[in-house]
Structure to design on (452 residues):
């Protein structure tokens, strides 16, 4: 059986929810049971709710209440469209009750003029609690035996409000008690993503984008065959479509490859959110709900070494290179500690590091403290900086065992001036630092060589 998680754009409006219904129906016909369904809030709703809380807390109460009314109308309009029949009365009164409670909370915030993280979670969780009820009713209306499961009874978290961490043992037990019985009874359990509760019953949320996390937790908790993340793109791409006119769809990649690519902003999903699934060896498939016939991208724990030599390219712009040179470094120890202590002091993350005997070059993408850092480093080294640089990163598990691939990467880029080259211990990625103006050309060369 599969878990199907639908993102905000896949439940954005009645047309999207109708596509969802057919996707669920297809999975049920194929497997004869399930699926378990996890949904995000309708697109834009979480942002709107957080805006409501902020407005209410800063005494713009009327503004907050009028935004709440807009949200109420959006959900009711979808319910009128999708659920005209037997479920209509129930879903309309559910939505109405939720919004009445919500309005009360917003008024209270206006009086208190203070929004605690705990209250913020109560407000933010509304989006998924509503969308999941709406989707449940729409599935039932379409003849599918859906059953709403309250995520607050299924995902148990700590009390780190607004980015709570799930407690795995408790969550597994709770999922087995809430989701599995529904499946065994032939139902389609539907729950809101992103939302959980502490053991004491306080509502929590898992952090922005947390519905993917919920999808993975549900999949791991009930030991699903596959977790499907339905979104609005075909899957992971071999390169940034803003740089490469026709990137290829990556059919399959390992979890660690996905992690390397995600760091560089291949933002289809955040790999840490699917860790619960990967640890249990459950494959995760990214699919496009606008084009459900596609095969998507499959992410698995283990590498597949039979694909293209590289799996994908990624890049990062607006990077600054800092060169730190000191003749005192020759044969000395403690130099790198002094260097990195400066970056730590200014809370600036370093991305790529290369060293020679007398110099260290690092890249940072947070420019805020570059001047202060330069000044501090100048106390014991010569420092120069260069901005408008970029990172270009080639990722592939095969880089580990086939050294000729790295050689090919560098030789394809022979006429591009490379400032730094780095291949770290994972050997699953080779990163070059180059001028930003050279990035499109360099990326095209690599893409042509490895993906055409
Ligand atoms: N609705 C939440 C957000 O926008 C969670 C999610 O969609 O993944 O962050
Ligand atoms: Mg998302």
């Amino acid at each position: 059986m599969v878990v199907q998680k639908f993102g905000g754009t896949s439940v954005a409006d009645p047309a999207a929810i109708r596509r969802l219904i057919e996707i669920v129906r297809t999975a049920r016909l194929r497997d004869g049971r399930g699926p378990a369904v996890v949904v995000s809030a309708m697109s834009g709703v979480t942002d709107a709710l957080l805006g409501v809380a902020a407005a209410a807390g800063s005494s713009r109460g009327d503004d907050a209440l009028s935004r709440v009314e807009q949200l109420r109308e959006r959900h009711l309009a979808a319910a009128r469209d999708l659920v005209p029949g037997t479920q209509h009365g129930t879903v309309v009164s559910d939505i109405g009750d939720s919004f009445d409670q919500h309005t009360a909370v917003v008024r209270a915030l206006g009086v208190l003029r203070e929004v605690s993280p705990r209250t913020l979670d109560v407000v933010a969780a509304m989006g998924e609690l509503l969308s999941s009820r709406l989707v449940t009713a729409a599935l039932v209306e379409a003849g599918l035996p859906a059953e709403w499961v309250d995520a607050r009874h299924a995902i148990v978290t700590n009390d780190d409000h607004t980015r709570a961490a799930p407690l795995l043992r408790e969550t597994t037990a709770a999922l087995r008690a809430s989701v599995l019985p529904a499946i065994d009874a032939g139902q389609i359990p539907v729950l809101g993503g992103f939302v959980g509760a502490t053991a004491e019953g306080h509502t929590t949320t898992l952090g922005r984008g947390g519905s993917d996390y919920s999808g993975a937790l549900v999949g791991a908790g009930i030991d699903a065959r596959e977790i499907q993340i339905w979104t609005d793109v075909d899957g992971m791409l071999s390169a940034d479509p803003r740089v490469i006119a026709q990137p290829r769809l990556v059919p399959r990649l390992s979890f660690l490859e996905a992690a390397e690519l995600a760091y560089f902003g291949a933002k289809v999903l955040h790999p840490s959110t699917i860790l619960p699934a990967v640890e249990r060896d459950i494959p995760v498939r990214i699919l496009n709900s606008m084009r459900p016939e596609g095969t998507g991208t499959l992410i698995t724990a283990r590498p597949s070494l039979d694909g293209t030599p590289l799996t994908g390219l990624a890049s990062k712009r607006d990077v600054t290179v800092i060169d730190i040179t000191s003749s005192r470094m020759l044969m000395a120890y403690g130099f790198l500690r002094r260097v990195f202590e400066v970056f730590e002091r200014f809370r600036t993350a370093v991305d790529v590091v290369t060293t020679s005997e007398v110099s260290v070059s690092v890249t940072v993408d947070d420019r805020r403290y570059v001047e202060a850092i330069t000044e501090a480093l100048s106390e014991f080294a010569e420092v120069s900086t260069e901005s408008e640089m970029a990172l270009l990163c080639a990722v592939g598990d095969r880089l580990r065992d086939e050294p000729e691939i790295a050689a090919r990467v560098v030789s394809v880029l022979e006429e591009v001036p490379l400032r730094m080259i780095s291949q770290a211990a994972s050997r699953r990625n080779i990163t070059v630092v180059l001028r930003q103006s050279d990035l499109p050309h360099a990326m095209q060369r690599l893409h042509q060589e490895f993906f055409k």
